[in-house]
């Protein structure tokens, strides 16, 4: 039976939504490193990962943390009564993203409380570390952290910390969404994706967002639109024609995002997204109209005023009322999603 532990990650970055990362530990293959990490996840007090920060982020390489002594990558401690402990006999190659590894002093048998997670294959690190686990769930969370802005010393500008940690139940298994089997980021897809593949996945995820929108689950729909956009990020290998298609797909996602932000009364976010659309597609009719709606609603300062604003703009009639607000105001004009 596999051993799984978790860390709950939080950040000071405004608007950042992180969450839980679950690791499967290779307890049979690397017992020393695995038990050291497990104990620091489950124990309370000073000798615990709880409250410590991720002090190093290198995009395309690794995310490092676990310094329970200094919090900056200079500390060392272990459960074995010494600051450092020996290597496990088996050496596993750092050949993919999502591997949990010991951070060492750069030479054999110098493992400590510190760890890092590989964010890409890094064979050159194999001789300097012990791979003792893998990310079983939550790679999306780590990709968000990987993209955070950092200081020259590779520390995130906004602190990222382990708010809580522990061991999962024995029967833990990764949650599966049969409607959305795609990784949160294209680089974590098991296959090498062509641009056409990315666009197809993005379209499927966007449609899931639309389904959630019409159910009134606007915040969940925003997550799907955000995920769809990740598959449409700029590709340096794209031809001008392909980049134009990618931009068209981005615009569609942005327009839907803006509509969802408007529905939950976050007009400023909607305006910002629509400004992005108009930067890339000046004069886009939907962007202009939706921006006018958001600006007028923002001036009124009341989400409940939105029906009055919306009725002055071009919307398609709906066969049934659309529930809009906490006061159960209804809107009979149904906005166009794409």
TrEMBL record:
PROSITE patterns: CSA_PPIASE_2
InterPro entries (UniProt xref): Cyclophilin-like_dom_sf (IPR029000), Cyclophilin-type_PPIase_dom (IPR002130), TPR-like_helical_dom_sf (IPR011990), TPR_rpt (IPR019734)
Annotated PPIase cyclophilin-type domain residues: 15-167
GO biological process, one term: protein folding
Any Pfam family: Pro_isomerase
Single GO term (MF): peptidyl-prolyl cis-trans isomerase activity
Catalytic activity: [protein]-peptidylproline (omega=180) = [protein]-peptidylproline (omega=0)
Gene Ontology cellular-component terms listed: cytoplasm
UniProt keyword annotations, A-Z: Mitochondrion
Protein's name in the database: PPIase cyclophilin-type domain-containing protein
């Amino acid at each position: 039976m596999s051993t799984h532990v978790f860390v709950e990650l939080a950040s000071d970055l405004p608007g950042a939504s992180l969450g839980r990362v679950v690791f499967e530990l290779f307890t049979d293959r690397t017992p020393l490193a695995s038990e050291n990490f497990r104990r620091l996840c489950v124990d309370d007090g000073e000798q615990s990962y709880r409250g410590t920060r991720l002090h190093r982020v290198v995009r395309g390489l690794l995310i490092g943390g676990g310094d329970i002594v200094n919090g900056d990558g200079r500390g060392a401690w272990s459960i074995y009564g010494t600051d450092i402990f020996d290597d496990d006999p088996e050496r596993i190659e750092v050949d993919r993203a999502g591997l949990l590894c010991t951070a060492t002093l750069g030479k054999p048998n110098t493992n400590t409380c510190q760890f890092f997670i590989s964010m890409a294959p890094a064979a050159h690190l194999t001789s300097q570390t012990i791979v003792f686990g893998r990310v079983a769930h939550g790679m999306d969370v780590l990709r968000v952290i990987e993209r955070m802005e950092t200081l020259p010393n590779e520390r995130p500008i906004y602190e990222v910390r382990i708010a809580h940690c522990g061991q999962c139940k024995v029967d833990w298994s990764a949650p599966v969404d049969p409607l959305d089997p795609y990784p949160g980021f294209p680089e974590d897809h098991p296959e090498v994706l062509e641009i056409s593949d990315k666009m197809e996945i993005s379209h499927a995820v966007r449609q899931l967002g639309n389904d959630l929108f019409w159910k009134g689950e606007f915040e969940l729909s925003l997550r799907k639109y955000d995920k769809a956009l990740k598959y449409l990020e700029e590709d340096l290998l794209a031809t001008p024609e392909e980049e134009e298609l990618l931009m068209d797909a981005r615009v569609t996602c942005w327009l839907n995002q803006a509509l969802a932000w408007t529905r939950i009364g976050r007009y400023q976010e909607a305006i910002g997204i629509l400004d992005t659309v108009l930067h890339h597609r000046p004069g886009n009719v939907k962007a202009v109209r939706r921006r006018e709606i958001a600006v007028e609603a923002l001036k009124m300062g009341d989400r409940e005023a939105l029906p009055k604003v919306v009725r002055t703009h071009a919307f398609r009639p709906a066969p049934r009322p659309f529930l809009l607000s906490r006061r159960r105001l209804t809107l009979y004009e149904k906005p166009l999603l794409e």
